[in-house]
Amino acid sequence: MKNIARTTVLPLLMVTLSCGQAQAISFTEASDAGETLNTAAFISSGMESLTSISGIIDGDADIFKIFLTGGQTFSATTINLDTIIGIPSDDLLGSPTDLIADPQLFLFDAFGKGIYANDDSFGSPQPTLPSGGFSPTESGFYFLAISSSGYNPFSMGGDIFPTQPSTEIFGATGAGGDSPLIGFQGTNTTRGKYTISLTGVQATPQNIPEPSSILGILAIGILGTVSLKRTRG
């Protein structure tokens, strides 16, 4: 069985950036992004760095078509102050939250074939696709998806990614891993807001709706190596 294994990883180095800075823009979901390749929200390529995507999951999955630059390291995470401090604090106080508590992230290539995925990371129920886990050799479009834990991508062969243990970073090693994405399936109907912090994604500022004045928390530091291990079982 093929899988992607992590070695020593430094806790995320977090910084806050203003969207007014050069090469620091964000994308806010204006209408519901689809959960298939044909209905994914398209973010035009450009010379600026896209550092975050924000939206709402309402019992479904959201897919974004993004542009990655060849040779540039990609990463994505929903870990930020709101998710690692705000949600636990609300739970402790018994207060409701409008944030999605347990999302998962997936990256697919231009044809919809799975690259890697994660559910829980760094001791939290928030996912991370770490820096070093994938760097495209050539520039092009990819599909980034987010869904609630338990609502999983599938192809004509079955589930594209394994689901357990939830802390692993998986390659497309499920029964349907060799075929392109068809959609998502599962019983989770969770609703909530999310923000995905990104590195290695390029976009055009003019096509970014409703930019936020603060981009939030970015994961920019990873210590050690993230190795791709492929074994067959």
TrEMBL record:
- Which Pfam families does the record cross-reference, listed alphabetically? PEP-CTERM
Q: What Gene3D superfamilies does the record point to? A: 2.60.120.380
Q: Where is the signal peptide?
A: 1-24
Q: Which UniProt keywords apply?
A: Signal
Q: Does the keyword Zinc apply?
A: no
User: Where in this chain does the record put each Ice-binding protein C-terminal domain?
Assistant: 208-230
* Record keyword Heme present: no
Q: Which InterPro entries match?
A: Ice-binding_C (IPR013424)
Name of the protein described by the UniProt record: PEP-CTERM sorting domain-containing protein
